[in-house]
Write a structure and sequence with these properties.
2 copies of one chain form a homodimer. Chain A is built from 7 helices and 10 strands. Chain A is globular, with a radius of gyration of 21 Å. The first copy, chain A, has 2 domains: 64 residues, Winged helix-like DNA-binding domain superfamily/Winged helix DNA-binding domain (Arc Repressor Mutant, subunit A, Orthogonal Bundle); 157 residues, Chorismate lyase-like (Chorismate lyase). With 242 residues, chain A is α+β, with helices and mostly antiparallel strands. The N terminus of chain A is likely disordered. Chains A and B meet through strand 7, strand 8 and strand 10 of A and strand 7, strand 8 and strand 10 of B. Chain A binds a DNA duplex (19 and 19 nucleotides) through helix 3. Chains A, B: Pfam families: GntR (PF00392), UTRA (PF07702). Chains A, B: This is GntR family transcriptional regulator. Chains A, B: Keywords: DNA-binding, Transcription, Transcription regulation.
Chain lengths: 242, 242
DNA sequence: CAGTGGTCTAGACCACCAT
DNA sequence: TGGTGGTCTAGACCACTGC
């Protein structure tokens, strides 16, 4: 008789972590909401409080939830001030000033082969393209283009963006229930093409930092492709290695 | 009588973590060595095994130690294959091939104001400057310049570097007892100056990715300033945001 | 097989927050 | 003051490593 495969189960805390992520993806708790207490979750999952705590610690490290002593455990939200620029690593050399946004355009289009491949769509599936500029002290610093699968962002228009006071990711989460969890970026140096040069008010050929980002929501599903051009004469991209 | 300040003590696991870091900085265990077992450390610090485990978990997350089930807890070393390129985020677009090193120079000099400030030295204190090229498939891709305080790297010469087969950080750790723990990088796009263009075999003015790195050893002491110029026509700098 | 880290449990006590 | 998360302890059992 062939021995049945022992099927190495994931540890209990990991299973619980995945169940909580699934509940977040299903919208059982929305960004900003409080999760049940450790004791309540322990009961729900039939585990000891220590095991649930371990799962919540992992989720805290991934920034999916945040814990406040005496208060509770809450679903992370990009609306929180500390999360405002969590994914924007560009900082001024003198660490002064913040960004203002200028919307250049928002239109419906069909996915190019490249966009489709990155987002896991079929070619020519409808996507929404957004273009904008970020300024610091009235100087343009970042030219952003981004593409979103229309099926997750139905109804996203220029007006919707203009009427929202906060960051784009806060809008996505509040209006479309899409919370960005993590992202991968590819950086390189490029010479400014004519249009980028005009918008960023630099000479053609000026070296620019190109930042291509793929952003993921709950369950590691890619939902945004973004291409940024950063003018880095008085700003730099800050990174920590460990 | 004025109330004495309650002096909020750090949690026990954090104190233990700091004591272990101090022992690492003092060289009590060298990179690659095994630490005492959890039980032995618990006895040494007068804490329960669970508390010691928590301290070790934090150190594992910082890559100061690595744990191997059934075997023990070991001091991280840059000699390990997995650590070889831990701080080099440049990867080929087609993810193929590795780097070869070419040493351009190694000389003793006096710290410029900028180098002194970054490394926390007095101006004109002696430092060692190293310059090198990294090639992939016989094409130059990275031009690196780095500066090290001489008092931590006495005896570092071109021959010492040439005679060491592994990565620079592995050499630093094996020969000078300086293990790099973490680093901060500032990235920007620059036009290639004449000398950089010649060495990287690109036209003058070619956009290059400039990467300025400050690397820290145990106890967050900066011990290396590095300036890299990356030619990113077929490579990119990869980053993860979370 | 002895020793190590990995998982899971159970419970005590504390610090903090809201009411 | 009651409920929350944060710390610390104690111990059982398992999985893996190396002799």
């Amino acid at each position: 008789m062939p021995s049945t495969k022992p099927r190495p189960l994931a540890p209990l805390y990991e299973q619980i972590r995945q169940l909580i992520v699934a509940a977040l993806a299903a919208g059982e708790w929305r960004p900003g909401d409080a999760l049940p207490s450790e004791a309540a979750l322990a009961e729900r999952f039939g585990a000891s409080p220590g095991t649930v705590r371990r799962a919540l610690d992992e989720l805290t490290a991934e920034h999916l939830v945040e814990r406040r002593q005496g208060s509770g455990t809450f679903v992370s939200t990009h609306a929180a001030p500390r999360q405002q620029f969590r994914f924007l690593r560009l900082v001024a050399d003198d660490a002064a000033g913040s960004f203002t946004r200028e919307l250049l355009g928002c239109r419906r289009m069909r996915a190019t082969a490249e966009v489709a491949r990155a987002l896991g769509l079929r070619t020519a599936e409808p996507v929404i393209e957004v273009r904008r500029l970020l300024h610091r002290r009235d100087r343009p610093v970042v030219l952003d283009e981004l593409w979103l699968p229309e099926r997750h962002f139905e109804g996203l228009t220029a007006d919707v963006i203009r009427n929202h006071p906060g960051a784009l990711y806060a809008l996505f989460e509040a209006r479309f229930g899409v919370h960005m969890v993590r992202a991968e970026e590819k950086l390189r140096a490029l010479a400014a093409a004519p249009e980028a040069a005009r918008l960023l008010q630099v000479p053609e050929g000026e070296p620019l930092l190109s930042v291509e980002r793929l952003a993921y929501t709950y369950g590691d599903r890619p939902v945004e492709l973004r291409r940024g051009l950063y003018h880095t004469s008085a700003d730099h991209y800050r990174n920590e290695l460990n």
